[in-house]
Description:
The structure holds two protein chains of two kinds.
Chain A: H1 3-17, H2 19-28, H3 33-38, H4 50-62, H5 66-79, H6 84-91, H7 97-103, H8 107-114, E1 123-128, E2 131-136, H9 143-158, E3 161-167, E4 170-177
Antiparallel strand pairs in A: 1-2, 2-4, 3-4
Helix pairs in contact in A: 1-2, 1-4, 2-4, 5-9
Chain B: H1 7-13, E1 17-20, E2 26-29, H2 31-37, H3 43-46, E3 48-51, H4 58-64, E4 66-70, E5 76-84, E6 88-94, H5 99-105, H6 119-153, H7 165-177, E7 183-190, H8 192-199, H9 201-217, E8 224-227, E9 232-237, H10 243-258, E10 261-263, E11 266-268, E12 271-278, H11 287-303, E13 309-311, E14 320-321
Parallel strand pairs in B: 12-13
Antiparallel strand pairs in B: 1-2, 1-6, 3-4, 4-5, 5-6, 7-9, 7-12, 8-9, 10-11, 13-14
Helix pairs in contact in B: 8-9
Amino acid sequence: xxxxxxxxxxxxxxxxxxxxxxxxxxxRAGVPEAVCADGFDAFGTYxxxxxxxxxxAAATLTGHEAEALLEDIGTYLVSHPSCxxxxxxxxxxxxxxxxxLLALGELPERVLLAVGxxxxxxxxxxxxxxLWHVSVGxxxxxxxxxxxxTIRTIADDYGTLVVLSRAGGSVEVRLVDAGFxxxxxxxxxx
Amino acid sequence: MRVDLxxxxxxxxxxxxxxxxxxxxxxxxxxTVARLSGAARSLDEAFCVELPHAGADVPAxxxxxxxxxxxxxxxxxxxxxxxxxxxxALVNLSFGLGLVDAVHRYALTEADFAPTELTVELLYLVExxxxxxxxxxRLNARLDxxxxxxxxxxxxxxxxxxxxxxxxxxALERAVxxxxxxxxxxxxxDHFKAVNDRFGHAAGDHVLAEAARVLSAxxxxxxxxxxxxxxxxxxxxxxxxxxxxxxxxxxxxxxRLGEPLLYExxxxxxxxxxxxxxxADHRGATAEAxxxxxxxxxxxxxxxxxxRAVLAQGDADGPAxx
Lengths: 190, 322
């Protein structure tokens, strides 16, 4: 499993619940002791089951559902000040929310452009006229949940009101109001 | 075949195109290039032509095809000129690698570029590269810190596997602090440099490893053997605390280390000079002082003709031959 995926979970747990909880969850998930102390190496490769184990452990310790934590990671990645770079990279996807959504199919290729060995599952976007279906392929457990949190938060970022519902790897996105709010500023020149 | 296209449609396709008349007058400008050319009415007023050459006129631009223009603020545009109408030209331009600066300078947005261009992708890549580089820099700093820490904490000599100077000093300081009696032997290989020079560093390394093995064989539990420099070793021997036994160990070591060694068919011959110290002769001496006394005795042994051991005399007395 790519170190960046695990780093995302680690940063989220630290920023949201504190360092002690991150360490507890990491130990419980069987993360190597040196990693518990120093954190995951962003460009390291780790056991494929570690991500799911970490989220499960955090769910047990915090009393949240694992799925809810995954969606929160998706939100965290595009809204927390320490993740501003990720939000900006995603906003390059398009000048408005619908363009962004339609460009999600290119997300795995875009990610590979940035990090040559970070393979994300295939993403397919179908539909139109205010209702879209985003389907997420296999290969990274929990990615559909993370992406749901990200889409919801990026919609806010664009000032667009959407309603999302997810069943497994399929996310339904219903556009309620494209000009709902002001949205956050984004310029190509950061 | 000719294409019937309205100029506004053409400039939507190519927002950085200039339509020039035969005299270089600007008949129309795409919305993005117009951010640079402003109210200028001719090419010369808006830009300096750098390619094909300074002051090139419209026929020269068309003849060259490739053009490079410089705006008064330094922004460089590159592009292609083709003939249009009666002696005029259509010049399509791009920021090239100056794109990132131009996006800042003119606050350009996605709408300022043709969707067929990979402009936004290039900006995305520049930003992604910056983020990744920053992350790698952080990782590098962390690994560097870990390496420095590991080196500082390392107590073994990589070549021979015995202790290093740090291990020796730690053991010696501990023995001094605990007021223990011990023997200290400083060993220096004679003619080591000659082996290195004649048979190469691999042979030298082999000699060092063998010497370490011989020295280790003389140690008992609780003793320390360390390589503290190129061909310098030190034995700290709490198990050998009287002069007779220390001399006996020294005699065995000079004999063993004087035996020839074979390395890939070459006979490598070294000898060992030894400086001996008995802690009981140097009451109250620090670890450094004991090591200095052993070093002085070693020097005396070398001066006395190599391949021998000299015991450092206690306190005020100088070292004497054995």
